[in-house]
């Protein structure tokens, strides 16, 4: 009986080691190329004008989502944010922000790509300007 117990425990141990090994990463590190198509650097938007937010994110491996943040350059005040948890090698962002600002404002758009399920992000920024009404 003891002999079967040792065989059984040995099998359980081997199965456990195999499952732990299967969950390990293969050593490759994902990365993403982020191309911000709009707005472009230095572009200006008048009051009431819609600013298209367009970007293409391409992963070395499957990406796990994206996020955009639009902030005032001077103090980092968040004006617009949106995110999407989605899986694909290429992600396309097509959003719109409407300029409702009442003073000249330099803006920073940051586009994030989530490259894994651990929440690892990479990002790219572009600066542009909003005119008041």
Give a quick precis of the structure.
This protein is an alpha+beta fold.
- Quaternary state reads single chain
CATH architecture assignment name: Sandwich
Structural class: alpha+beta
* Portion in strands: over 45%
Q: Can you give the mean pLDDT?
A: 87
CATH topology: Immunoglobulin-like
Overall geometry comes to elongated
Query: Which H/E pattern describes the elements?
Result: HEEEEEEEE
Termini separation comes to 87 Å
Main sheet strand line-up: 2-8-7-4-5
- Largest beta-sheet characterization: 5 strands, mixed
- Please give the count of helices: 1
CATH class: Mainly Beta
User: Rg from C-alpha positions?
Assistant: 23 Å
Measured as a percent range, the helix fraction is 10-25%
Instruction: Tally the beta strands.
Output: 8
Low-confidence stretches: 16-25
Overall domain count: 1
CATH superfamily: Immunoglobulins
Features:
133 residues; 5-stranded mixed beta sheet; 17% helix; 3-stranded antiparallel beta sheet; 8 strands
Can you tell me about this structure?
The protein has 133 residues and is α+β, with helices and mostly antiparallel strands. The protein has one domain (32-130): Sandwich (Immunoglobulin-like). It has one helix spanning 2-23; strands spanning 32-38, 44-45, 50-63, 66-72, 78-84, 88-98, 105-114, 121-130. The strands form two sheets. It has a five-stranded mixed beta sheet with strand order 2-8-7-4-5, with no helix packed on it. Strands 1-3-6 form a three-stranded antiparallel beta sheet, with no helix packed on it. Strand 4 and strand 5 form a beta hairpin. It is elongated, with a radius of gyration of 23 Å.
